[in-house]
Amino acid sequence: MAKKKTKDKCGLCLAKKCCTYITQELPTPRTKADFEHLLWQVSHQDVSVYRDEDGWFLLVDRPCMHLGEKGLCMIYDRRPEVCREYSNDFCEYDAPAEEGFDLYFPDYDTLRKYCMKRFKRWSK
Q: How far apart are the C-alpha atoms of 114 and 104, rounded to whole Å?
């Protein structure tokens, strides 16, 4: 499949995933206490955790309050610098982000099962 030009992709994208979630890099969890903290985080609505080739991330699946119905920014001319720096050279139009996840924990139960395997004495 030929790669689309960056400027053309937004108009062709049906998923409209841009600005519908945020990610925050996390320190690599190593201890039981680190994972207990992650369990607390994924206990909240629309929050999950994943690991990919770049490390561990918190994912908050909530759209930006300035996102219009058709997936366009309603404050485009005065959007924050982080938005201005965003590049869609490789985005979810090219491939879903989930394809790059090594580990994915969408909720408490999934992460807890992982913790119980990783830490043999988890429940003690």
A: 10
Residue partners of 95: CB distance under 8 A and separation at least 6: none
Q: Name 50's bridge partners.
A: 57, 104
Query: From CA 63, how far away is CA 61, in angstroms rounded?
Result: 7
In the three-class reduction of DSSP (H, G, I as helix; E, B as strand; rest coil), residue 100 is classed as: helix
Closest residue by Cα to residue 4 from 92, 81, 79, 70: 92
Report which residue type is found at 61: D
Question: What does 24-63 look like in DSSP terms, one character per residue?
Answer: EEEPPP-SHHHHHHHHHHHTSTTEEEEEETTEEEEEE---
Count CB atoms within 10 A of the CB of residue 52. 16
pTM comes to 0.83
Amino acid identity for residue 50 in this structure? Y
Q: What CA–CA distance (Å, rounded) separates 13 from 79?
A: 21
Tens of pLDDT along 34-90? 999 999 999 999 999 999 999 999 999 999 999 988 788 899 999 999 989 988 888
Instruction: For residue 11, give both structure tokens.
Output: 């108009």
Structure tokens at 36: 């207990």
